[in-house]
Design goal:
Blueprint: H1 4-14, E1 20-24, E2 32-33, E3 37-38, E4 48-49, E5 53-56, E6 66-73, E7 87-91, E8 103-106, E9 110-113, E10 116-119, E11 129-130, E12 141-142, E13 146-147, H2 150-158, E14 163-167, E15 171-176, E16 181-182, E17 193-194, H3 197-207, E18 211-214, H4 222-231, E19 237-241, H5 252-258, E20 261-266, E21 270-271, E22 277-281, E23 284-289, H6 293-311, E24 322-325, E25 337-345, E26 348-351, H7 360-365, E27 368-372, E28 384-389
Parallel strand pairs: 6-7, 15-18, 15-19, 16-17, 19-23, 21-25
Antiparallel strand pairs: 1-14, 2-13, 3-12, 4-11, 5-7, 5-8, 6-10, 9-10, 20-22, 22-23, 24-28, 25-26, 25-27, 27-28
Helix pairs in contact: 1-6, 3-6
Bound molecules: ligand LQZAQKY5 and molybdate ion (MOO).
Ligand LQZAQKY5 binds next to helix 3 and helix 6.
Protein name: Molybdopterin molybdenumtransferase
EC number: 2.10.1.1
Catalytic activity: adenylyl-molybdopterin + molybdate = Mo-molybdopterin + AMP + H(+)
């Protein structure tokens, strides 16, 4: 059995970043920028008022100083003249600063009487001006690759970028396999359960930028599995769930190999997730996940998510790990790297009592996968351990 790290490196070696495509800015959130973008203008393009008040020349500003109000500057409408000694221009937030002015006195700091203002005592020293280019300058760059967040979209819009080049989203086909499965909403027979893994994985993979599609459930027959693989043939990544172990009805590996899959590995030293398989399959990458619901989701976090990020041009890195002190003692670990369902809080990290890989309720309660290295000895409360936030 190969290690989790070896399996992940092998998966990384099977994928390359996908092609680029151009999308309108309004559809770019959550996508990965593929080409560096350059600002097309300064922001603000002119020195602008940061407050509602009066634009003046600071040489003449002192408590009780008086000014004649000679005009107005509003956002989108500059004052065409200039501000001279003893004169002020009524100004609003975002308006271009008039020539000759270098300070805005906020309206709370003046008394106004007709077209005259008098500066109150206790004036602060803020000039209330946003210099031209103080946010960004023409030519400033947003470097690719970058996962675009809502704040990036706002910045790009401000730079007058209407469309961006992004990495194509990986098309991922998710295939549940098993005679016992029906889709959520269907009526299960007495020996049947509801397919959950494809739904959990689609939610996970879509949330990190993939486009996952749930294919019809494949039954435990060669013909049904072949049909499912045929439906998946245009995908970048084909993910099967279940039928990966050693039982008489575990046909996924054999059928995939029969259809041209070149197996890179099968079985890894991981708990849960032991019967994981992967290989190239007719231009796509095929990953066969174990059927136990928690095993499939844990393999999603540990393998599928980093592979998707690599396809999106974000580099080949395992999911970042955090550390926390153990809240309780732990017994020694076995020969497989163990991803224990756990909960992190201020007091430290606590592994759940029940670690059966069928228990989705425990997984849903967990906010961490506590990582026990292969052959790790017993650990005491207070020792620092690694975990994956989930
Ligand atoms: N003799 C051995 N038996 C098993 C071994 C072993 O080494 N020797 N390994 C165990 C481990 S570890 C795992 S993990 C499972 C994996 O088995 P399969 O990948 O073949 O999965 P299935 O048998 O098809 O299903 C297992 C379990 O999960 C349920 N399942 C499957 N697909 C779904 C789905 N899409 N949604 C919800 N639940 C699903 C299925 O009904 C079974 O209960 O093998 C152990 N056995
Ligand atoms: O490896 Mo299995 O995935 O332990 O449940």
């Amino acid at each position: 059995m190969i290690s989790v790290d070896d399996a992940l490196q092998q998966l990384f070696s099977m994928v390359t970043p996908l092609n680029h495509e151009t999308v309108p800015l309004a559809q770019a959130s959550g996508r990965v920028l593929a080409r560096t973008v350059t600002a097309k203008r300064d922001q603000p393009p002119f020195a602008a008022s940061a407050m509602d008040g009066y634009a003046v020349n600071s040489d003449t500003v002192e408590p009780r100083a008086r000014f004649d109000v000679v005009g107005e500057a509003a956002a989108g409408h500059r004052f065409d003249g200039s501000v001279t000694k003893g004169k002020a221009v009524r100004i609003f937030t975002g308006a271009p600063l008039p020539l000759g002015a270098d300070r805005v006195i906020i309206q709370e700091d003046v008394e106004r009487d007709g077209d005259r203002i008098t500066v109150k005592d206790g004036l602060g020293d803020s000039v209330n001006i946003r210099p031209a280019g103080s946010d960004f300058r023409c030519g400033d760059e947003i470097a690719a690759p970058r996962l675009l967040r809502p704040s990036d979209i706002a910045l790009l819009a401000s730079m007058n970028i209407a469309e961006v080049s992004v990495f194509r989203q990986p098309d991922i086909a998710l295939i549940s396999t098993g005679d016992e499965l029906v889709m959520p909403g269907e009526t299960p027979g007495p020996d049947q359960i509801i397919a959950s893994n494809t739904y959990g994985l689609k939610a996970m993979l879509d949330s990190i930028g993939a486009k996952a599609r749930i294919l019809p459930i494949a039954r435990d027959t060669v013909a049904s599995l072949e049909t499912a693989f045929d439906l998946a043939k245009d995908a970048d990544l084909i993910v099967t769930i279940g039928g990966a172990s050693v039982g008489d009805h575990d046909l996924v590996g054999d059928v995939a190999v029969g259809l041209g899959m070149e197996r890179a590995f099968y079985k890894i030293a991981m708990r849960p997730g032991k019967p994981l398989m992967a290989g190239h399959m007719n231009g796509a990458v095929m990953v066969g996940l174990p059927g136990n619901p928690v095993s499939a989701m844990v393999c999603g976090h540990v393998f599928l998510a980093p592979v998707v990020r690599a396809m999106l041009g974000l580099g080949r890195a395992r999911t970042p790990r955090l550390t926390a002190p153990l809240a309780n003692d732990l017994p020694p670990n076995g020969p497989r790297e163990h991803y224990m369902r756990a909960h992190v809080a201020d007091a430290g990290i606590t592994a759940y009592e029940r670690q059966d890989s069928a228990l989705l309720n425990v997984l849903a309660d967990a906010n961490a996968l506590l990582i026990r290295p292969r052959g790790d000895g017993p650990r005491q409360a207070g020792e620092i351990v690694e975990y994956l936030p989930i």
